[in-house]
Design a protein that fits this description.
The protein has 14 helices and 39 strands. The protein is an alpha/beta fold. The chain folds into four domains: 61-170, 3-layer Sandwich (Rieske Iron-sulfur Protein), CATH 2.102.10; 190-296 and 428-497, FAD/NAD(P)-binding domain (3-Layer(bba) Sandwich), CATH 3.50.50; 310-423, FAD/NAD(P)-binding domain (3-Layer(bba) Sandwich); 515-599, Enolase-like, domain 1 (2-Layer Sandwich). The strands form ten sheets. It has a seven-stranded mixed sheet with strand order 4-13-1-12-7-6-5. Strands 16-15-14-20-32 form a five-stranded parallel sheet. Strands 22-29-23-24-25 form a five-stranded parallel sheet. The chain is globular.
C-alpha cells in the first residue's frame, strides 16, 4: 500500500496585496501621498489613515483556530465549507493551491460552496456575483462588498484555519477607500464628479472612485427622498421600510465623503460650460459627469388614470401604501411585466382577490418564451391569481373619489380597490434633449464600451443607456438589470480615472414569485427557439434560448447552479451550440455538474 504524507494547511486573515499597498505607511505614520491629476494639475491626497499594525488581528481575543481537514481531502477544483465553531469559511483548491474566503455571498447570503468555481473565481449560485478566490474581491455583481480573505498556510500533518471571529461572522469586507482631503475648501456649487441618479450604477461609481484612491469631491443627486436602496425589493418584498433596504447606512456616506442631494432634479445639462442646472434654479459645475437616471414608469392613457389608489411602484412609500390598501381588498394589476407579476405574487395571500390584465396571451412570452410563460401562468392561477389576457384597460371608475372598478376593452368589469400599473418604462433622459449628448430614437443614451458618451468627460450608466454587448458581437443593447447597473457604474468610474477599461460581463437577472426563483443569464433578444430540459409542470426545468445554432441565454427554476455555470462558459467567450443542449447527456450533466462536455464545444 501507499503511504501518503499528510500536509498541514493553516488559514488566517490577510489583507490582499492590492489593499495592503494602499495601507503602506510613510515614516511619519501617515498614508503615503499619491497624485491624481485634475484638469492637468497635480493634486496630492491621502488615503484613509489606519493604525500601524504588524498583525492583521488587532485583537488577539478576536482570533479563532480550528482543525478542519487533511490536505488530500480536497481535489483540484473542489470547494468545501469548514466550520470553525464561531463561523464558517470556504476552503478552495485550484491548480494545486489552497485559498480561503468567506463562505456566504455578501449580496443575499447564498452559500458559495454551491456556486461555480472557474479560473480563479467563484460565482454565486443565486444571482451571479463573482469573487476572486485569491483576494476575495468582488469582480462581477450584484452586491457592493467583497469577501473576507483568509491566509492559507501548508504545513505537515494537519489542516486548520486561523481567522478573525468578526470576519467569520460578518462574511463581508468593504474595500479600503479614500476620503476627500479638503471638502471644506470647495464651493458648494462646484464638484469634481457629479453623479445624476442614486441607484446601483451611481453608488457603485462613487464607491469605485474612492476604492481607486480618488480624493476629490463627489456629489450624487437624486429625485428620491432616500439614500440609495435595493430597488428590486420594492416588488419582491413590498412591506420593507427604506432603512431595511438601504444599500449603505447614512454613516457610510459621511465616512467616505460621498455627498447625496436628495429630492433634487436636474432640469438641463450644459456640456460646454460643464454645468448642471437643477429644477429649482440651483447650478452646479462639474469636471466629470455620470448620468444614471434610470427610467420612468409608463402610465395608463385611459379615463380615470389620475384617481386615488392607482399606483406605479417607484418608491418604498408606494409599495408600503399598496400593501396596506390591498390587504383583504380587490387588486387589479395592469401589465404582466416583471414588476406586475412580482406584485401579484406578493399580494396573492394578502388581498381578497388579485386580477392581472395583459395585452399578450401569455406572460413573459417575449422574454422567457411561450412554454415557460404558460408554466409560470399556471403557477399563478394555482395561487388564486386571475388572468385577463389579450385585452387592455379602457376606463377606471370611481366612487366617492376612490377607485371602484376597472373596465376592460373586452367589456369585462373588474371590482378594484387598488390598481397597480406595470406596463413598462421609458428612459428618464428628457432633460438631455438639448444637451448635445447622443440620444437614440427611443430616448436611450448611447455609450461605448467604456460607458463614455459622445461628449468628453460625460459618462452614462444603468437602465437609461444602450451599450455594446460583447456577448452579442458588440450589438448596441439596453439591459435594464440590477446586476448590469452595478457593472456600468464600476466601468464608468474606472474610465473617469483614465484606466481604459472596457465592459465585459454576462447579463444576469432573477425574479422571485411564490417562494420560487427564475434565474436568467445571457441576452436572448430575438431568440428563435427554446430547448427545454426538465419538467415544466413540476417547475423544475432549464430553458436554453437559441438563435440559429447558438445558445444566447438560459433560464432555470429549481436547477441551481446551472445558470451560473452557463454564465461562466459565456463569460469565457465560448460558444454553446444548440445540439449540445439537445443532447440526452444533458441529464448526466444535471446529476454530476460536469461542465467539460459544454466547454469543449463551440469556438
Amino acid at each position: 500500500f501507499w503511504v501518503v504524507p499528510v500536509v498541514e494547511v493553516k488559514i488566517e486573515v490577510v489583507i490582499p496585496e492590492k489593499e495592503r499597498s494602499k495601507e503602506e505607511m510613510s515614516p511619519n505614520g501617515k498614508a503615503s501621498p499619491l497624485i491624481y491629476k485634475v484638469n492637468g494639475t497635480a493634486r496630492h491626497y491621502h488615503l484613509e489613515e489606519h493604525p500601524i499594525a504588524s498583525n492583521p488581528y488587532h485583537n488577539p481575543k478576536d482570533v479563532v483556530e480550528a482543525s478542519v481537514c487533511h490536505v488530500k481531502d480536497l481535489e483540484n477544483g473542489q470547494m468545501r465549507e469548514v466550520d470553525l465553531g464561531c463561523g464558517k469559511a470556504l476552503l478552495i483548491k485550484e491548480s494545486g493551491e489552497f485559498h480561503a474566503v468567506g463562505h456566504k455571498c455578501p449580496h443575499y447570503g447564498a452559500p458559495l460552496v454551491k456556486g461555480v468555481l472557474s479560473k480563479g473565481r467563484v460565482r454565486c449560485p443565486w444571482h451571479g456575483a463573482c469573487f476572486n478566490i485569491g483576494t476575495g474581491d468582488i469582480e462581477d455583481f450584484p452586491g457592493l462588498d467583497s469577501l473576507p480573505r483568509f491566509q492559507v498556510k501548508i504545513e505537515k500533518e494537519k489542516v486548520y484555519i486561523r481567522a478573525s471571529k468578526q470576519a467569520l461572522q460578518t462574511q463581508r469586507r468593504t474595500k479600503v477607500m479614500a476620503k476627500c482631503i479638503s471638502l471644506s475648501n470647495y464651493n458648494l456649487s462646484s464638484t469634481n464628479v457629479l453623479i445624476i441618479g442614486a441607484g446601483a450604477a451611481g453608488l457603485v461609481c462613487a464607491e469605485t472612485l474612492r476604492q481607486e484612491g480618488f480624493s476629490d469631491r463627489i456629489v450624487m443627486c437624486t429625485l428620491d427622498r432616500h439614500l440609495p436602496y435595493d430597488r428590486p425589493k420594492l416588488s419582491k418584498s413590498m412591506d420593507s421600510h427604506p432603512e431595511q433596504i438601504a444599500l449603505r447606512p447614512k454613516e457610510f456616506f459621511c465616512t467616505y465623503d460621498i455627498e447625496v442631494l436628495t429630492e433634487m432634479q436636474v432640469a438641463a445639462v450644459d456640456v460646454k460650460s460643464k454645468i448642471a442646472v437643477f429644477k429649482d434654479g440651483f447650478k452646479m459645475e462639474y469636471n466629470k459627469l455620470l448620468i444614471a437616471t434610470g427610467n420612468t414608469p409608463k402610465t395608463l392613457s385611459c379615463k380615470g388614470k389620475e384617481m386615488e389608489n392607482v399606483f406605479n411602484i417607484r418608491t418604498p412609500e408606494d409599495a408600503n401604501r399598496v400593501v396596506k390598501l390591498a390587504t383583504s381588498k380587490n387588486v387589479v394589476i395592469v401589465g404582466a411585466s416583471f414588476l406586475g407579476m412580482e406584485v401579484a405574487a406578493y399580494l396573492a395571500e394578502r388581498a381578497h382577490s388579485v386580477s392581472l390584465v395583459e395585452l399578450e396571451h401569455v406572460p413573459f412570452k417575449k422574454f422567457f418564451g411561450e412554454r415557460v410563460g404558460r408554466a409560470v401562468m399556471k403557477m399563478f392561477e394555482s395561487n388564486r391569481v386571475k388572468f385577463y389576457m389579450q385585452t387592455e384597460v379602457s376606463e377606471l371608475r370611481e366612487q366617492d373619489g376612490k377607485l371602484k372598478e376597472v373596465v376592460l376593452k373586452s367589456g369585462k368589469v373588474l371590482r378594484a380597490d387598488v390598481c397597480v400599473v406595470g406596463v413598462g418604462a421609458v428612459p428618464a433622459t428628457g432633460f438631455l434633449k438639448q444637451s448635445g449628448i447622443n440620444i437614440d430614437s427611443k430616448g436611450f443614451i448611447v455609450v461605448n464600451k467604456m460607458m463614455q458618451t459622445n461628449i468628453p468627460g460625460v459618462f452614462a450608466a444603468g437602465d437609461a443607456v444602450t451599450f455594446p454587448l460583447a456577448l452579442r458581437n458588440n450589438k448596441k443593447v439596453n439591459v435594464p438589470h440590477w446586476q448590469m447597473a452595478h457593472m456600468h457604474g464600476r466601468i464608468a468610474a474606472l474610465n473617469m480615472l483614465a484606466h481604459g477599461t472596457e465592459i465585459s460581463t454576462v447579463p444576469y437577472l432573477w425574479t422571485a414569485m411564490f417562494g420560487k426563483s427564475i434565474r436568467y443569464a445571457g441576452h436572448g433578444e430575438g431568440f428563435d427557439d427554446v430547448v427545454i430540459q426538465g419538467d415544466l409542470d413540476e417547475l423544475k426545468f432549464v430553458a436554453f434560448y437559441t438563435k440559429s445554432d447558438e445558445v444566447v441565454a438560459v433560464a432555470s427554476m429549481n436547477y441551481d447552479p446551472i445558470v451560473s455555470k452557463v454564465a461562466e462558459v459565456l463569460a469565457a467567450g465560448r460558444t454553446i451550440r444548440k445540439r449540445d443542449v439537445e443532447n440526452p447527456l444533458i441529464f448526466l450533466f444535471f446529476r454530476t455538474g460536469d461542465m467539460s462536455w459544454l466547454t469543449g464545444k463551440g469556438s
